[in-house]
Each structure stands twice: as C-alpha cells, then as structure tokens.
Amino acid sequence: MSTESTVIANIGELVTNDPAVGGEAGGELGIVRDAALVIEDGRVAWTGPSGDAPAADASFDAAGRAVLPGFVDSHAHLVFAGERAEEFAARMSGRKYAAGGIRTTVERTRAASDDDLRANIRRLIAEMARQGTTTVECKSGYGLTVEQEERAVRIAAEVTDEVTYLGAHVVPAEYQGDTAAYTRLASTDMLAACAPHARWVDVFCEEGAFDADQAREVLQAGIKAGLAPRMHANQLTQGPAVQLAVELDAASADHCTFLSDADIDALASSETVATLLPGVEFSTRQPYPDARRLFDAGATVALATDCNPGSCYSSSMAFCIAVAVRDMNMTPAEAVWAATAGGAKALRRTDVGHLAPGARADVHVLDAPSHIHLAYRPGVPQTSAVWRAGVQVR
Ligand code: NIG
Ligand code: FE
C-alpha cells in the first residue's frame, strides 16, 4: 500500500462533523476556518489550522473553498434496467404514485443481461461520485425471483459494501393474490441465496406491498440469516412500519413521509435513524414531512436520494439538501449533517460521514466558500474535487 500523503491546504471552511474540533465557533458541524487536512494511507491523518499543517508528499490548493466529508447516500435502488419517464410525466398531470409501478421495472430488469445491469449501476455510482457521494447503499428488489434477486445483490456487491436484500419490494405478477406464499419465498430460499452477498434486509411495508406481519416475517428471517434490518416505512400512509422498525432495532426507517406523534416518540427513544428522502416527495408530488418535529423530539435524521427509476430518478444529494432546507424546515447545517454524518449513522458506520483523524479519507471540495451554498444555490453543480478512501476520483 502506498504511504504517499497529500495535504489539502487553504481550506476556507472545513466541515469535520466532529464537535470536539470546532469548539464554540464550529457549532454542530465542527467547522474549522482557514484549515488544512492531511490524507495518508486512505485515512484522514491530520486536520487543523492551515499554518500548522505538517509537510506532505503532495499538496492540493483548496483556494479558500469549503471542504466537507463525502456524502453518504444511505438509500438507493441502482440495480435496474430501463426508465419510467412517462410515468413521471403522468404524475405531473395528476396521476398518483403507487407501488404497482415497480413491476414495470421488474419486467425490464429481468430481461436485461448481467452486463447491462453492471453498466447501469456503474454509471450511476460514477454520477454520484462526480457530485461528492463517496458511500452508497444499494438495494435489490427489481428481480423478485430467487435467481434474479441473487443476481442483483451479487452485482451490487461488486461496487459497494452496503448491499441490501429487498426481495420483499412488491409481490411479483406471478404471485398476485398469494402474498403469503411470496413472503414465505422471500423469507426462505430467496433470502438464503441473497444473504451471502448482503449486509442488510429491507421490506417495503405499505398498502399495495407488504403488511406489518409479512414485513416482520421477512425481517426476522433476515436477522436470523445474519443481516441487519432497515425499512421502507410510512411512505404513502401513516401505517405500522415505523413502529415495527423501532421494535426490531432497524438501523433506519426510510421515507417517514406520514408520521404520527407516536411514530416520532418511538424514533426519538430509539437508535433507529429517520431517513428522509426529499427527492421522492418532489418527484411524486407528495407532501413534505416536517423534519422539525423529528429534531424537536430528539430523533436522528439522515437525508438520502432513494435514486430509482420510479419514485425519484435523482442521484443528487445536493438537491436533497436544498429541498430539505426549503421545504422540510431543516437548517443548512442540519441538512449537510444529515447527508453526511446522518447517513453514516443510518448505515451504522463510524469510519465515514466525518473528517476526524482516522476517518476514511472521503473528502468533498466544494466550488463554494461555505456549506450553506448547497442550499443557497440549488441546481448549480458545486463539486470541485473528491477523494474516496484517499484516492482522488474527481
Ligand atoms: O423507495 N417505495 C418503494 N420503493 C422505491 C420506489 C421504487 C419504484 O417506484 O421503482 C422507493 O420509493
Ligand atoms: Fe426506496
């Protein structure tokens, strides 16, 4: 392994997410001004005032720009073929989003070759890296047979460690009317084929998909097989999913679009992160959840894209931040924290989402002087340079 070190010098605003670093002036993002950061062996070796930076083999001039931890996108569905632009257009003319649209992508995905699926996921991961995303969670869920789901998690595992088995995404056409039988398959043979390639088990617990008992069956089987649970919860209705996620100590309850006070209390008194997906509300014309209710109760909040061809075909974490600030009552600092440290918590990772010494060197140099610009200049590309595990990828 190379021992070459790089100093990123002349950082106008360094967001460390380490409260110990920034002191009073840093606030919750652990901000250091006029800073430098040293990368060595793929890790952050040092951060501090620019003038105190130790010598390194190479140097990069940040020219007064802001530097953030790489985004942690803790919710994405990237193993698929085709797209659903017409469905989006119909929604914008009034049609409602429903779980059934997933089956369109299932048909296209089943017909695709391994290499087609590989090319698509690699294209999207590269698109994300260009925008500062350095950790990506990726779900299966568009195969829905034993072979197809195994293929999806295997291909996802080629590009990320954060692979989620989502065999219980919807009931496929061939099991229509027999959700119980499909739930059994997803909890037995399909799970057994997928578990060796995955870290997580997820269920879409919703009207039109799986009810709470069926979700519990799949998640408990997944836990027995060595996977950790996370959940699609309360996307379309105020159902039982959030409470089930908390009951099972899921790492994350995702969507959280419709939350009762009891759901918020349950999240706040648990280790389950509430992962908000603003791009979904945007792309499905749903009401935005009020993140302030979650913060006021003391819940931990993450932001993720949910990048998928149906409910949100965007890979942009910056877009999520802008919408969360504009429409979900988050401050720019809260949104940037949720898109970095919050995502890491939703994946139960301690090595990413922050830039304290020892962290993986996932470094995002903005083309802006402050993290606030991510929300302040929506739609404007603002990524200047990116390192992932110490390797410059942009
Ligand atoms: O998280 N809600 C379930 N799954 C995805 C949508 C998948 C699709 O529409 O293709 C989601 O929104
Ligand atoms: Fe999703």
UniProtKB/TrEMBL annotation:
<feature type="binding site">
    <location>
        <position position="75"/>
    </location>
    <ligand>
        <name>Zn(2+)</name>
    </ligand>
</feature>
<feature type="binding site">
    <location>
        <position position="232"/>
    </location>
    <ligand>
        <name>Fe(3+)</name>
    </ligand>
</feature>
<feature type="binding site">
    <location>
        <position position="306"/>
    </location>
    <ligand>
        <name>Fe(3+)</name>
    </ligand>
</feature>
<dbReference type="GO" id="GO:0019557">
    <property type="term" value="P:L-histidine catabolic process to glutamate and formate"/>
</dbReference>
<feature type="binding site">
    <location>
        <position position="142"/>
    </location>
    <ligand>
        <name>4-imidazolone-5-propanoate</name>
    </ligand>
</feature>
<feature type="binding site">
    <location>
        <position position="169"/>
    </location>
    <ligand>
        <name>4-imidazolone-5-propanoate</name>
    </ligand>
</feature>
<dbReference type="GO" id="GO:0005737">
    <property type="term" value="C:cytoplasm"/>
</dbReference>
<feature type="binding site">
    <location>
        <position position="142"/>
    </location>
    <ligand>
        <name>N-formimidoyl-L-glutamate</name>
    </ligand>
</feature>
<keyword id="KW-0963">Cytoplasm</keyword>
<protein>
    <recommendedName>
        <fullName>Imidazolonepropionase</fullName>
        <ecNumber>3.5.2.7</ecNumber>
    </recommendedName>
</protein>
<feature type="binding site">
    <location>
        <position position="232"/>
    </location>
    <ligand>
        <name>Zn(2+)</name>
    </ligand>
</feature>
<feature type="binding site">
    <location>
        <position position="77"/>
    </location>
    <ligand>
        <name>Fe(3+)</name>
    </ligand>
</feature>
<dbReference type="InterPro" id="IPR005920">
    <property type="entry name" value="HutI"/>
</dbReference>
<dbReference type="GO" id="GO:0005506">
    <property type="term" value="F:iron ion binding"/>
</dbReference>
<dbReference type="GO" id="GO:0050480">
    <property type="term" value="F:imidazolonepropionase activity"/>
</dbReference>
<feature type="binding site">
    <location>
        <position position="77"/>
    </location>
    <ligand>
        <name>Zn(2+)</name>
    </ligand>
</feature>
<feature type="binding site">
    <location>
        <position position="306"/>
    </location>
    <ligand>
        <name>Zn(2+)</name>
    </ligand>
</feature>
<dbReference type="InterPro" id="IPR032466">
    <property type="entry name" value="Metal_Hydrolase"/>
</dbReference>
<comment type="similarity">
    <text>Belongs to the metallo-dependent hydrolases superfamily. HutI family.</text>
</comment>
<dbReference type="GO" id="GO:0019556">
    <property type="term" value="P:L-histidine catabolic process to glutamate and formamide"/>
</dbReference>
<feature type="binding site">
    <location>
        <position position="308"/>
    </location>
    <ligand>
        <name>N-formimidoyl-L-glutamate</name>
    </ligand>
</feature>
<feature type="binding site">
    <location>
        <position position="310"/>
    </location>
    <ligand>
        <name>N-formimidoyl-L-glutamate</name>
    </ligand>
</feature>
<dbReference type="InterPro" id="IPR011059">
    <property type="entry name" value="Metal-dep_hydrolase_composite"/>
</dbReference>
<feature type="binding site">
    <location>
        <position position="311"/>
    </location>
    <ligand>
        <name>4-imidazolone-5-propanoate</name>
    </ligand>
</feature>
<keyword id="KW-0369">Histidine metabolism</keyword>
<keyword id="KW-0862">Zinc</keyword>
<dbReference type="GO" id="GO:0008270">
    <property type="term" value="F:zinc ion binding"/>
</dbReference>
<dbReference type="InterPro" id="IPR006680">
    <property type="entry name" value="Amidohydro-rel"/>
</dbReference>
<comment type="pathway">
    <text>Amino-acid degradation; L-histidine degradation into L-glutamate; N-formimidoyl-L-glutamate from L-histidine: step 3/3.</text>
</comment>
<feature type="binding site">
    <location>
        <position position="75"/>
    </location>
    <ligand>
        <name>Fe(3+)</name>
    </ligand>
</feature>
<keyword id="KW-0479">Metal-binding</keyword>
<keyword id="KW-0408">Iron</keyword>
<keyword id="KW-0378">Hydrolase</keyword>
<feature type="domain" description="Amidohydrolase-related">
    <location>
        <begin position="67"/>
        <end position="372"/>
    </location>
</feature>
<dbReference type="Pfam" id="PF01979">
    <property type="entry name" value="Amidohydro_1"/>
</dbReference>
<comment type="function">
    <text>Catalyzes the hydrolytic cleavage of the carbon-nitrogen bond in imidazolone-5-propanoate to yield N-formimidoyl-L-glutamate. It is the third step in the universal histidine degradation pathway.</text>
</comment>
<feature type="binding site">
    <location>
        <position position="235"/>
    </location>
    <ligand>
        <name>4-imidazolone-5-propanoate</name>
    </ligand>
</feature>
<feature type="binding site">
    <location>
        <position position="84"/>
    </location>
    <ligand>
        <name>4-imidazolone-5-propanoate</name>
    </ligand>
</feature>
